[in-house]
Amino acid sequence: MLTIQRVWRLQEKLIKLVGSECMDCGYVCYPPKAACPRCGSREVKKIQLPRVGKVLSYTVLKVPVEGFESKSPLIIALVELGKARIITQLTDVGANEIYVGMPVEATIRKSPQMIEGATHYIIKFKPVIKK
Amino acid sequence: MRKAYIVGVGMTKVGKFYDKSIRELAAEAVFKALDEAGNEKPDAIVVGNMLSSLAEQENLASLIADYTGLRGISGFKVEGACGSGGAAFLAGYSLIASGVFKKVLVVGVEKLSERPTPATSRGLAWAADADYELVHGVSFAGLNALVMRYYMSKHGVSREEMAAWPVLMHENALQNPYAQLKKKISIEDVLKSPVIADPVRLYDASPLSDGAAAVVLASEEVARKLSDTPIHVAGLGNALDSTDLTSRYELDRLLASKLSAEKAFQMAGVSSKDIDVAEIHDAYGVTAAISLEELGFAPRGKGAKLVYEGRFRAGDRPAVNPSGGLKARGHPVGATGIYQIVEVVLQLRGDFPGINVGGEIGLTQNLGGVGANVTTTILRR
Ligand SMILES: [Zn+2]
Predict the structure, then answer these.
(1) Predicted complex ipTM exceeds 0.85
(2) Domain range spanning residue A46?
(3) Does residue A115 belong to the interface with chain B, where contact is any CB pair within 8 Å?
(4) What is the pLDDT of residues A81-110, one digit of tens each?
C-alpha cells in the first residue's frame, strides 16, 4: 500500500532524480543502491541524474493496476538519463507520437494515484519542445 | 553433499477455481505426490507461494501440513515472486543434501482468482520494484512490454516471429489434461488479440491461474525403498538479479537465467546440448525468447526466430515446454516452478499424460520477477 510516509521517504528520489555512483568503478545506478552491484564497493555517492534524456522503450497500459484506474491508458517509458535509466509516465504526448530515441525532459505532475484521499506529486517526462 | 531423488509427484489442473481454497488445492497435489511415494509421512514440508496475502492467508506450511494430516512435521514457506516454486525446491533439496532430513515434501500453491484483476495485477507488480516502478503505475505486463519492444527493435524481430511462441504453446497444451487454456490459435489470432500493454497482447501473456503441484524428495537410500523410478536431481542453480528493470546491465538479457543455468550445468556435469526436454518460464513470449538464448538453446537475438522457424517442438532436441508452458498450461505463480519439475519428471519416466517426448536428461527454469530470482534444475532418469 502506498502510504503517506512512503511518499515522504521517496520524495527526494522521485522528484530530484537521485541515483548512485560507485567511487571505485564508476558504475551509475538508478534506483540508487547501498553498494555497487558491479564491484560490491560500499563507496557509493548520491548523484543528480540529468533531467533530459531519450526514450529507450515504451508501452501503453490498457489494463491498469489498482490505484491507477483514473488515468487509463497510462503511457510508460523507459528513459535513458546519461548513464542511468528510469521507468516513468510520459505526459503531454499522444500514444501515437512516441518513438524510440525521442528526447524527453523531467517535469513534476500529479500522480493518478490517491493516498488516503489526497493527491501527490511525482516526476514524469514530457517531450522536449525545440525552441 | 548427499544425493537427492524425486520419488513422488502430483498436481492439480490449472485454472480458475472459485470453489477451491489454497488448502484444498494444495491437499490435492500433496496427496497425489505422497501416494506415489508410499504414503509415508515426510520429515518436512516446504511451500512455494508468492501471493497468499491476496487471499488473506500466510503461514502456509502449518496450514497445509495440518490440513493434510501432517501436523508435527517441520516446515516453512519460501517466497521468490513467480520463482517461489523453484526457490522452494532449492530449499527442499538442501534439506536432503545436507542430511538434515530424509524425506521432504515441496508444494507450490497459488490462488490468483480471489480478487478483481487490477488488485491481482498490483500484487504481481510487487515482484518488481514497488518504490521505483509500481509508484509510476507500471504493471508486470508493462515491464515485459518495455523489454519486448527493446528486444524486437535491437534484434530485428518481427511481430509475426514473436507470435510463433504462443501458437506453439497453445498447440502443446491441447493434449495436456492439466492445462488451463485448451484452444488452438493462429499467428493471426495473436496479432488480433486485445492489447494489454502495447506491444504485449492478450495471447502474448500467460493467464492468471490457480493451481498446486507437489514433489516428494528423498535421500538415496529412502528413494530406493520408495520408488522403482526415482529421478535424480543432478543439478541445481539459483541466481539473483536486480528487482528493478532500470539498473540491469543489458535490457535484452536475463543475467540470472544464464548464471543459474551455468551453476546447474556445472553441478550436473552436462551442457545445454545434453538436454532432451525442458520446461522454461514463458510468462511472456519475450521471456521465452531470451531464456532460450541464456540457456544456450539459441544464439543471442535468435530465440524467437528459431521458434518461428519451427524449432523446439516435440521431436526436436530439446523439446521445450511440451506442457504448453506458462502461456497455455497456465501460471499459478508460486506453484509454476513445481509444475515444471513435476512435468519433466513425468516426461523422463514416460508418464506425462500430454505430449510425451521422453528423454534421459531434463531441465526446468523458473523465473521470479523479470528474471530477478531464477532457479534452474537438471533432472536425470
Ligand atoms: Zn563499483
Answers:
(1) yes
(2) 4-127
(3) no
(4) 999 999 999 999 999 999 999 999 999 999
